[in-house]
Amino acid sequence: MIRWHAALLCAAAIALCSISAFAQEPTCKSKGEAVKVDYPALARKMKISGTVRLHLQLTSTGGVRETKVLGGNPVLASAAQEAVKQAKFEGAEPCIAVFEFKQ
Asked: What is the pLDDT of residue 25?
């Protein structure tokens, strides 16, 4: 029983460390205009709203190499991921992009 609790505690500690590592990353700044995300029709029909947070790995030219969803509804997150793939960002360091979906 004690081993199970210790394993659970270790897993929780690892998860918290990885979340805090992402939290320290700067907010992404787009080059030029703000990133435009199309509100998914399904989300609008189901009255889904909320915040999506993405961790972006950028190329040396500011393009998006990889995205990881840190939080948000999967339907909204998918739309945000598609939008950032078309955008260019300042710098080449990993950053956090936040999108608000409101009806």
From this structure: 86
Instruction: Provide the residue count of the chain.
Output: 103
| Global pTM value | 0.75
Residue appearing with tokens 């939008």: 83
Kindly state the tokens that stand for 31.
């080059």
DSSP-assigned letter for residue 39: P
**Is residue 27 within 8 Å of residue 89, measured between CB atoms?**
no
CATH value at residue 87: 3.30.2420.10
Local structure of residue 28 (DSSP, 8 states): P
At 103 the pLDDT is: 85
Domain that holds residue 43: 26-101
Number of domains in the chain: 1
SS3 91: coil
CA 73, CA 79: separation in Å to the nearest integer? 10
The answer as to whether 18 is a domain residue is no
Mean pLDDT over each residue of the chain, to the nearest integer? 83
Please tell me the distance from the alpha carbon of residue 28 to that of residue 81, in angstroms, as a whole number: 13
